[in-house]
Structure formats: C-alpha cells, structure tokens
Automatic annotation (TrEMBL):
Residues 184-255 form the Transglutaminase-like domain. It comes from uncultured bacterium pBIO2079. It holds the Pfam family Transglut_core. It comes from the Bacteria. This is Transglutaminase-like domain-containing protein.
C-alpha cells in the first residue's frame, strides 16, 4: 500500500491549476557477476526529495524492500538506506520505489514570490562537472556580462542558455558524455548532463546562482518536433537559476530547439524532480562483484487523486 509522507513547503508556489497525475516507479537493479557471494551488502539510494517543489507534490510512496533508514539533507534531498544482506553468484535483486505524484505546470518567470536565497555562495561556486572557475568558462561569462545588464539575472541566464544550446549537440556517444561542463565545451556535444552542467557553470561564473536538477522526464521528444533526435523517457537532468523575489526558475537546454524553448516554463506534466546536485548511489559489500543499474518509468493516471 502506498504510504503518505509529510511534505514541507519550500521554493516557488505553483500558480497554475493545470496538473497531471502519475504513478512513477524508479528501480535499482543489483547483480552479482562473480563466482563468489557478496555479503553485508548495503546501499544508499537517492529517492524523490521531500519538498513541495514547483514541479510536483508527492502524495504517497512505497518500496518493494523496506529501507532501514531514510536520511534527509537540509535542501530536502533524501537517501534511502537498504540492508540487502547476501547476494549469491549470478543472482539479481531489484528494489522498486513507487510514488503517487501530482505534476504541475506553470510559468515561473511570471510568478511573484517573496523569496530570497540565504546561502547563495553554495550555488555560485564550482563543483564536480561544473567548472565555473575555469578560464574558458569565465571568458564566456565575461562576454555575456559585457553585453547584458549585470543586475538582470534573467537576461544573464537567458544568454547562458542561448550559448549552451547553440554550442552543444546532443549525443550519447560523444567522449564528453557524463564528464561535465568543460568536457562538453571542448567536444561540442554531450548528454543532458553536459547541457545542464554547461548552463549552470556559465550562469554561476556570471554571478547568478544556479543548480542541477536530477529527475525523470516523460516522452517529451514529440514536443520538439522534427528538428530533434532526443527521446527522453526516464532519467533526465536539467537546471534552475535563482532570481531574487521570484525563486528558482527552471531551464532545460537539452530539449530546447528552434521549435521549443524550455526556459522559465516546463511542458506541463512531463517532469518530476528527484533531487538537487549530484547524489549518486553508494554501496558497501564484501566479496563478489556487483553491478548496479538505475532507472524509472511512468504510468499516466486519467483522473486526479
């Protein structure tokens, strides 16, 4: 049975009643590929953040294997801890998390909220895959600042967004895949990780707080029509930038094309945010050789719940 969880309010308030209801299932598959058993297997798995985000509201959740603990950070990110025990040679174990979610649509650029960022430096500093202090990215940011009003966060983010979508081509086979902003800039291609990372790195270097959003995207390729070969159906990464008095504003340079611009407004009902920043699966075990895969899929609901 899906269990309700308490939701704490944070970030922008949704100002659009247009909602889509989903059952979202995410899974972790663990396989022992060796000839010896793996013992004392423990995993920490990122699960959907416990926040009332601009995108969604979690109504309830359940797990196929009960976690022994759920740890929550200050920004609402959650990690579920699973004590798997032993996994025999050649055996597989799958952990399924099922969420009941209402997904909202809104234009956050048109919103007005009394929101201010308490610790902006966190979202202005370089980080893994976000090399905002590199000379190459700082030069791009300075060029943007030379052309727009330095106090206009939206204009700065817009310019960083435009640069990203003009510079990168989507490819899952580029050498820069999953390597981050600087590698994407050098190779001119990458996956959603590179698109989001380059946008965030340039935006931070230009003095506007920005962050990575990890989550899930429904089949959004038809939205971008014929000029895109992107078929997002499950795991996805996009970005947000912060505007004082408005809050966190979403932007998805990966999906944006000449026919569709995902800046300030997400296509209604296509995105579910899981967490912010880099929250990889962590594991400990003795013996064996484990491989771990991670993903998710949607079941669209017809009626509200």
């Amino acid at each position: 049975m899906l269990q309700p969880i308490p939701i704490k309010a944070e970030g922008l308030r949704n100002n659009n009643q247009d909602t889509t209801c989903y059952i979202l299932k995410s899974y972790v598959k663990i396989e022992n590929n060796s000839k010896t058993s793996a013992s004392r297997v423990k995993l920490e798995v990122p699960i959907i953040a416990n926040i009332n985000s601009p995108y969604q509201k979690i109504i309830a959740e359940k797990f196929s294997i009960a976690p022994v603990a759920i740890n929550e950070s200050d920004n609402g990110n959650r990690m579920a801890v699973f004590d798997i025990g032993n996994i025999k040679p050649g055996s597989k174990i799958t952990i399924v998390a099922e969420y009941k979610i209402k997904v909202y649509g809104s234009n956050w650029l048109n919103s007005s909220n009394d929101l201010h960022l308490n610790h902006p430096q966190i979202y202005l500093s370089p980080g893994p895959k976000i090399e905002s202090n590199s000379p190459e990215i700082k030069a791009i940011a300075q060029n943007i600042l030379n052309q727009v009003d330095n106090h206009d966060e939206v204009a700065i983010a817009q310019a960083a967004f435009d640069y990203t979508i003009k510079t990168l081509k989507y490819s899952l086979y580029a050498p820069s895949v999953n390597q981050g902003a600087l590698s994407a800039l050098e190779n001119g291609a990458g996956s959603c990780v590179e698109f989001a990372s380059l946008f965030v790195a340039i935006t931070r270097a230009a003095g506007v707080p920005a962050r990575i959003v990890n989550g899930f995207a429904d089949k959004v390729a038809p939205l971008s029509k014929a000029d895109s070969n992107i078929n997002l159906d499950s795991r996805h990464q996009w970005a947000e930038f912060f505007v004082d008095g408005k809050g966190w504003i979403p932007a998805d340079p990966t999906l944006s094309t000449s026919r569709l611009r995902v800046f300030g407004k997400l296509p209604t009902g296509y995105y579910v945010a899981q967490n912010y920043g880099d929250s990889p699966i962590k594991g400990k075990y003795n013996g064996g050789k484990l491989s771990i895969s991670y993903g998710g899929y949607w079941i669209r609901e017809v009626a509200n719940f």
